[in-house]
Structures are given as C-alpha cells and as structure tokens.
Amino acid sequence: MESPKVSLIVVNYNGASKFKELLLDCVRSVAETNYPNFEVIFVDNASVDSSGELIEQNFPNVRVLRLPANVGYAGAANAGLAHASGDIIGILNNDLVVTPDWLNPLVDLLARRPDIGIVSPALLRDSSTVDSLGGEVNVLLVSWDSRANEPAKGAIRDDKPIFVLSPPGAAFLFRRELLKELDNRIFDPDYFAYYEDVALGLECNLMGHKVAVVPESRIVHKRGSSWGLISPMKVFLFRRNSIWTGITVFDPVQMILMLPTWIASTFYGGVVYYRMTGDPAYLKVSFKALFALATSFRKAWQKHLWFKSRKVVPIQSIGLTPFLILDTDKETLFSRFALGVINLSVYFAGLWRYRITSIVRYPLLDRILLVERR
After folding, report:
1. CA distances in angstroms from 139 to 112, 193, 243, 315, 318, listed in the order given
2. 151: which DSSP letter?
3. What is the DSSP pairing of strand 88-92 with strand 6-12?
C-alpha cells in the first residue's frame, strides 16, 4: 500500500540568531526522516536574522516560506497549510530533534484509528526525562504538560497510545480532513502564541475526535529555546487565550458562572510568578489580560457561536483534571479556602465532576530549574 504523503511544517522565528546549531540540528533531523513520502516546509515568521538563508543554503530540498510580518506561532502554522500538499500534516517547533523513525508510528496510528484526530510523539527533555506526554487542563483553564520532568522510564511504561486533552504544541500530526471542520485553520490566529494547542485539543475532543500521544515515537524538545521558560508576555498570552478558550467551548451558563473564577485565577497566577521571579511586571500582566478580555469579548463570543454548531460532545464528558497548580504542594488555610470557593463555582456551573481535589506543583517551574534554564 502506498504511504500517504505527509507535509511537515517547521515554524521559526529568529532561530538562526538564538540557537543556530539547534535550528540546524532540528531541520536536519526532520529532513532525514526515513518515512518514504514526505515534504518539509520551513515557515520563517518574519525573522530579522538570516534564518531563511541559513536553511536554503544547507537544505536545498526544504521549502522555505517567508512571511512578511510576524503573525505568531498560530498564524505561521496556518500560513504553512496553504503550501502543504500532504494528506497528513504535521506542525513542528524549531527547537526539537527527531529520530529517523519518529514519523512511522504516528502515521500508522492515524491509518488504523479513524476515531483519532490528532497524534503526537512523546516529547523528552533528554534521553531520560519527560518534557510532555500531552496537555492536562483543569476547570480553571490552567494547563500544563503531563508528566513533565519525570523520569521517562517510569512515566512511559509501554507503547500503547495515551489519550489526552490536548497535543504537545511542539509536535503533532493530523489528517487534512480535520481542517475542513476547523474552517481551514489548525490554530485560532487571534491567539498569536500559547494555549492554541490546548484550545485545539479541547475543540477536537468536543467534536468527537480523540487526541493521542504515541510513546513509540520519541523526540527531544529543547523547551524554552524560542521564548524562554517564562516571561510576562507568555503569561499574558496564556491567560488571555485560556479564557478565550473557556468562552468558546463552555456552555453560556457555565461560562458566566466560571468567568469570575477564571479571572481570579489569572490574578493569583501573576502573584505566583512575581514571588518566583521578583519581577513586578508579572503583577501587571493580570490587569493587561483583563483589559484585553474586556475589549475583545464580542470577538470571543463570536468564537463561541462558531464552535457551537461543531460541538457534539458535552464538556461534562471530557477528562478535565482535578488538580490545582500552585507554587507549592503544601495546603495552607488560604489554599483550602480557595479550593472551597472554586468548587462552589464548579458546583453551581454543573461541572461538579471536575471539582478540584488536590494541589500539585508544576515541576517545570521549580526555582532551581528556572535558574538552570536562564
């Protein structure tokens, strides 16, 4: 049987100046994939360095698409779709390195399982540590990477698909047919960057398409090479986009009842990041996100109406996690009070199945790791 053609879209912004050798390793490893029928499209997101020239000089078989303006990760990925000729399309970060056989298990699973809409490899920080096994999301719309920073040997026990709420945005594949249901885009272009993968995963699950991570396919992701692990801009985009997502996918009554809690979570997040970094810019981020939401609510509501006709699965039937992410895993009087208030909102919104039952700390934001990665 002829192998379906795969189009691999690598999104780049100033990779040549930020991490030249990693960028070359990334494109080289993707170009040397041993799958028999694929193309590589390098989307340069209006870089001000020599990224496009660097790739053209070193990889003549890679197609370079230069965008006239920086439209973010979401916009650049969407731009690459118009130039992709494959039946299966993949979106890739420019800070990862793949193995020669990484693509085969992903295409094979899509071929065997029509109920699966998106597949992703397991992302590792290095050969022994997990970077991401897909995305987890709680009812506060706070998301994080599943099993991040855990030993790969313990987190990945076999090669069976792991069904998740969202794919790792750094690397995933989907059938071309999915684009028709999403109005010929894979990400919401208004998101610019961050949380667009979570929004995509929730949309797919609610449209009845499963999202799966395939542990048999493992690649290395040098997280933070493009934007750093955290920054005020990243936190702003995360929270604005997450609440946009909530307005889009939740039912109106659920959204209205949960909106105050989502906003409160945004302000608390700013305090957490300030305490971790000492940077007062994080305290301003929450106000910036709230202003952006207030001025774009009409657009957010249009997203809700757009998705309403596409949703076939109720939000109550997907697997939002019961964890609350804080900067500590120790319960205090304040955290217990916060849990009670959150769960009261969840109860009245009819989302009691997704009540928060435990507190966990996000391992990728440990202070020691932040110092190591700066």
Report:
1. 32, 21, 11, 10, 11
2. B
3. parallel
Q: By C-alpha distance, which of 233, 354, 250, 232 is closest to 300?
A: 250
Predicted local confidence at residue 1, as pLDDT: 61
Percent of the chain's residues with pLDDT above 90: 78
> Which residue, among 370, 371, 369, 341, has the nearest Cα to 356 in the 3D structure?
341
Tokens 């919401």 locate to 188
| Spatial distance between the Cα atoms of 240 and 217, rounded to a whole number of angstroms | 32
> Which domains does the chain possess?
6-221 (3.90.550.10), 232-373 (no CATH)
**What is the rounded average pLDDT of the residues 149-168?**
92
pLDDT digits (tens, 9 = 90+) for 34-56: 999 999 999 999 999 999 999 99
Show Cβ contacts of residue 354 under 8 Å, excluding neighbours closer than 6 positions.
138, 139, 316, 320, 322, 346
pTM: 0.93
Residue 327 Cα to chain centre, angstroms: 21
